[in-house]
Amino acid sequence: MITDAYGSTIQSFRVRVLRQDCPGASPYWQSFDVEYESDMNVISVLQRIAAKPRTRDGRETTPIAWDCGCLEEVCGACTMVINGRVRQSCSALVDKLLAEHPQEIVLEPMSKFPVVRDLMVDRGRVFRALQKVKAWVPVDGYFDLGPGPRQSRAQQEVAYPLSECMSCGCCLEACPQYTKVEVPRATNETDESYQQRLHGTYDQSFIGAHAISQAMLFNAHPVGRWNAGERLEALTAPGGVQVCGNAQNCVAVCPKNIPLTTSIAQAGRAVTLHKLRQLFGW
Amino acid sequence: MSESFFVKHDFLLRRLHSLSGLVPVGAYMVVHLLANASILNGVDAFQNVVYVIHSLGNALWIVEWVFIFIPILFHAALGFVFMFQARHNTQRYPYVSNFRYRLQRITGMIAFVFILWHVLHLNGLIHAEWFRATIADGLGIAQFRPYNAASTAAEALQSPWVVGLYALGLLACVYHFANGLWTMGITWGVWITPRAQAWASRVCMGLGGLVAAIGLCALIGFWRVDIERARERELEMYRQRVADGSILENPHKLSRPVEAGEPRSH
Amino acid sequence: MSKQRVVVVGGGLAGLACTMKLCELGIPVDLISLVPVKRSHSVCAQGGINSCNDLTRQAGDSEWKHFDDTVYGGDFLQHQPPVKEMCFWAPRVIDLMDRLGVTFNRTLEGNIDRRRFGGTLYKRTAFAGATTGQQLLYALDEQVRRWESDGRVAKYEYWDFLGPVVDEGGVCRGAVAQNLASMEIRAFPADAVVIASGGPGLIFGRSTMSMMCNGSAASRCYQAGASYGNAEFIQVHPTAIPGADKLRLMSESARGEGGRVWVPRTPQDPRAPRQIPEAERYYFLEARYPKYGNLVPRDIATREIFDICVNEGLSVEADRLCVYLDLTHIPKTELDRKLGGILDIYRKFQGVEPSEVPMKIFPAVHYSMGGLWAAYDRSADGGLIPGSPLNHQTSIPNLYAIGECDYHYHGANRLGANSLLSCIFSGLFVAPGIHSRLGSLSGGTASDQNQSLYAAAVQYHREQHSALLQRPANGDNPYQIHRELGDVMTKAATVVRRNDQLATAYEQVCSLRVRAQQCGLSDSGNWTNQNVVFTKALLDMFPLAQAIVRGALQRDECRGAHFKPDFSFPGIAASEPMERRREAEAWCDRFEANNARWLKSTIATYGGEHPRLSYEDVDTSLIPPRPRLYGLVGAEIIEQVWNERQQLGGRERKMAQPAAVTS
């Protein structure tokens, strides 16, 4: 139960949302009053608003667009900026938010990705980065070829936390080196040529902590390490690990507590040795 | 340099930037501050260090540019390019490392301005006599005279404003150096685990504290120099060295009153 | 061949496994998903994935025993050949996932570690921490991304599958889908369409399922003519954390480690739980099942918790049903060591420390055993014929269903850690069949079809879409109707089912459907209009909801997850041996008669306003049905009588002993 400054139970609370109708439109704020219920999270707040989309000043409006999936903090879909901090909205509990900031709950879309609408953003760049660093084990195929390589417990215990990354983008939103890349679509542009242009632009921009960490995950895999060189080339290409400025916000905001800065330092060592080997032909 | 040049050589440029911060720029700074600190052992000690440096003769000019000025300009120029790519967010994410990241960029700027001023203020950059006569003296820059090392340095560092700005600039440089050393260790993959990074951070900050202390002590040392007596002693040393042939006569490296007022002795 | 394409709808374990296998076979794939495939609901699976393995084999396990456990756990309602094939493939599925880099927990020697799961005596379950589903999904996602880099897969993420394109001959020729951002509707001509869209949890309002598990893709195929099997078989998990938005799973290991379930004897006692003295607490599971206590099997725990809240009115809270799951008597250090991961979920989402305050839990809809009817091609040895184009084909030719949204494998009740297996297996296994179908298409390939077929399909969906947008805004709110639907379904069609309630519920669902058809949209825009997308999904929930309720209403028996107390078999009451024997004989007679009547799959076909139900015989040719006796009073004598009958009948039976279902 949440009480107001005078100790009485609150009936409702204010939610302020930064909205945007479509890409390129200017964003605007809208405030809503939401009736208080116990055990609410930001998802249920948005559900209540969707069921009765009326602003504080009584104006009818459209439901807020937002993204969500598992609501258990394992899918990464519902990431947004809540009271100024990036996190998953499913695990953002209203009681806690109001305890920290009694006046209102402020919701904004992630600022490092192009807004699709309201709180929905296009995180295609996150997945493109995974392609760039070849984050997979290059197996021969999917026929039965017996078991995989044996791995020690220690190896598993290092790999498991890295493989929990759900590509939510928190590390990127909080990273001062990761900047927004928005490629507006030209008129009369085909899907293919737009996609090509978009990927070309993404590939020149910083890949981000998550992709560096995934590259390290697969470089440590007993089979994945055989094409480690290709991943290190990707990590030293434009927008690679060198862009990291060591602000280390990534590791602080990661909802899965992935040791991202450890991965970054490992990547740093790996590319240093890789480049020296290339230079001196070791 | 077009943008595509930066994009194409992003990795190399950033690694060179990182490296140049330690070698030669950072390393030079430490040597420079250690040399300055010799003032704590007296005017003679400091003057002797300067004599050693200036024993390079005309090569000194090359050394200054190749190992000091150009690397600093390179480091600073790239630093400015990279700095403007950052989107600071310490208000939203008030973590220690985020403040350090921001401070690294702020101190970098302060350091650059300070070094520029410091070099003009004491060194003057251009050592030609005409420059000194026509421009430098008028502007009050290029005040340092190698063969009157302590006295001219002390004279330049008498105003509390100047000392204050030097202290600020010095601390900015040292922070930038120490924190940069720590992040460099991450960038190049020297310290990897959070534990190792925490230890490295303590060591780097400790080193920074030590270098800052040395620098500040030197500043105090210069401030406390008895300028008149120092000048006499420096002149004495100059004459002695010229007499025993260990240096050539070079009034350009002496402070002006000496040139004007004192008779030259051989 | 190179021009032929396949559309896969859904990017969970089944859809991704199928996609990567098709790519390997050289077939380009258009992968349509409501969400980025890496965010599919498969990530929520925690426990693990089953297979017979070297270790269990030496303890007497075999693929056949895995098969038997699955069939017995499912109360014999599944066709046995697909289950047999799956269980015999299981070790190879695990090997493959291991090669793909899944971070399975390891033994000291570097082998895959295993744990024991419900419904078996063997340690068959491979696991990766508490996020096995996530780890498996990511490995498949990575492989599909690899094919995407090669241009073999085109992903259409944030696209809503609107329906199959079916030609005049009733053959599937592609799909129509809508972009959720631009609202563009377009056709995807294809020579086969694979539906891998998961379960329909949203029909029940709140469940343990993700927000995209609305069943719309399966429903749209059903409405296009595909049959739907065993709709009424919905698994309800006993312990979930009630939330305003979702019911989150609380693993049964909490009870395994000593957690006690109780309610205050005073209804809605206002005191804090730890202030309530022992004497005033009702440990109902321990009281009612002294032998098994809190570790009664899943379905029994579910029913008892439901009963104590609904029928006895002893719910902890007045406006929300829940009971206490108490761990506060266990030292915190021990809890953190053994249950750290799952207790974190409670802490994170409830903001309460479970080692200090008892958790509040309630059963929640968890999994749909039923789904789109799918064919299979039985081999001589009782498995499936690999590469047969019939395997997993729905009643619409060239339209396939795999994963949770088909009705195979789990019968009336799913065993823990079998769903991940069935999803990956069906995805991998269907691909060679599709490959052979593509080589032997009747009526030409998709590119040979008259383009007007696709134009007409797109036109139809565009009109539907604009009609929705032009609805007057003052109608019922679709979110409100959804809430009501969820309440009706949860109340009548989950744990305990009564015919009167089901009949009422069916009427309510029908009238809600009429209201939904007239609901109003608060957003009539044509950019990322989630309002209209949700309304479409809502409209498509009703045909499935009707099939679920009608199927449950008509099925007058108890089988697996479908529990009707009016038709349950009481245990043996007598104590006198002759009388006990007589009762057991009668029990077995009744059991046999019931099987003759009800050991059949419910097959629903879309009939517009109401579903048409028919019943299909189940292939039980490999393992004859036998009673599930776990927890029943007099189980020993029934078992004895049953075994004697089987021996007298001289039937060939591979598995003589009814294995105990442990959880």
Characterization of this structure:
The complex is a heterotrimer of chains A (282), B (266) and C (663). Chain A has 282 residues and is an alpha+beta fold. Chain A folds into two domains: 12-117, Roll (Ubiquitin-like (UB roll)), CATH 3.10.20; 123-280, Fumarate Reductase Iron-sulfur Protein, Chain B, domain 2. Chain A has helices spanning 42-51, 94-100, 124-132, 153-163, 170-173, 191-204, 209-219, 228-236, 249-253, 260-280, and strands at 12-19, 28-35, 79-82, 85-88, 104-108, 115-117, 120-121. Chain A is globular. Chain C has 663 residues and is α+β, with helices and mostly antiparallel strands. Chain C folds into four domains: 6-233 and 369-451, 3-Layer(bba) Sandwich (FAD/NAD(P)-binding domain), CATH 3.50.50; 237-364, Succinate dehydrogenase/fumarate reductase flavoprotein, catalytic domain (Flavocytochrome C3, Chain A, domain 1, Alpha-Beta Complex), CATH 3.90.700; 470-554, Methane Monooxygenase Hydroxylase, Chain G, domain 1 (Up-down Bundle), CATH 1.20.58.100; 569-648, no CATH class. Helices cover 38% and strands 14% of the residues of chain C. Chain C has 17 helices and 21 strands. Residues 651-663 of chain C have low confidence and may be disordered. At the A-C interface, helix 1, helix 3 and helix 4 of A face helix 1, helix 4, helix 5, strand 13 and helix 10 of C.
Précis, in short:
By secondary structure, chain A is an alpha+beta fold. In chain A, 36% of the residues lie in helices and 12% in strands.
Determine the most extensive contact between two protein chains. Answer: A-C, 73 and 69 residues
Give the SSE string of chain A.
EEHEEHEEEHHHHHHHH
* Total DSSP E strands of chain A: 7
Name the beta content range of chain A: 5-15%
In CATH, the homologous superfamily of chain B goes by the name Fumarate reductase/succinate dehydrogenase, transmembrane subunit
Q: Biggest sheet of chain A: strands, sense, closure?
A: 5 strands, mixed
What structural category arises from helix and sheet content of chain B? mainly alpha
| Domain tally of chain A | 2
CATH superfamily of the largest domain in chain A: Alpha-helical ferredoxin
Question: What would you report as the Rg of chain B, rounded to the nearest angstrom?
Answer: 21 Å
Task: Indicate the proportion of strand residues of chain B.
Answer: under 5%
CATH class of chain B: Mainly Alpha
* Count of separate structural domains of chain B: 1
